[in-house]
Amino acid sequence: MPDYDLSRNDLSEPVVKMTIHGSIVDLAYSRLLIQKRICHCRKFLRSTVQKKLPLDEAVVKHLRHSGLIEGRKPNLYVSAAVAIATATLADYIRTRGQDDAFYRKQITDYLDKSGTATRKEIDSLLWGQLSDALDDAQK
């Protein structure tokens, strides 16, 4: 199995250094590993962001510019492109939340049916639909 080195400090371009010990036995397999490296980088990134591990501001800026992350610190999450590549689009949708119009429509539909609502009822209506990236206090 190859060894991976993800410790490169130069942020101008994400790099995964792979060392294959011994001789290359199957050139097609080596090409496949190179083609799949972006998927491995995205999985590593997804894991880092989901675990909410601290990221340097320069790293955040680079990842955001590369279209790999979204959100505001400390509530960063992987972008739609990464979520699609790693088959986690449902998690992405739950994490990113919805726009204000979506929540407004939920509330107005509720009010149209009931005529009135308490804060507790509105909280109950919206709580499960708010972003999973938010803690209880932020919700």
Helices, strands, pairings?
Layout lengths: L2 E3 L11 E3 L7 H9 L1 H14 L6 H9 L3 E4 L2 E4 L1 H6 L3 H8 L3 H15 L4 H8 L13
Antiparallel strand pairs: 1-2, 3-4
Short summary of the structure?
It contains seven helices and four strands, in the order E-E-H-H-H-E-E-H-H-H-H.
Q: Top keywords for this entry?
A:
single chain; mainly alpha; 2 domains; two-stranded antiparallel ribbon; two-stranded antiparallel sheet; 10% strand; elongated
The overall strand count is: 4
- Going across the major beta sheet, what is the strand order? 1-2
Question: What gross morphology would you assign?
Answer: elongated
Question: How much of the polypeptide forms β-strand, as a percent range?
Answer: 5-15%
Structural class estimated from helices and strands: mainly alpha
Radius of gyration: 21 Å
Low-confidence stretches: none
Helix content: 40-55%
What is the typical, i.e. mean, pLDDT?
75
Report what the structure shows.
- The protein is mostly helical.
- The protein has 2 domains: 3-96, no CATH class; 97-139, no CATH class.
- Helices cover 50% and strands 10% of the residues.
- The protein has 7 helices and 4 strands.
- A hairpin with a 2-residue loop joins strand 3 and strand 4.
- The mean pLDDT is 75.
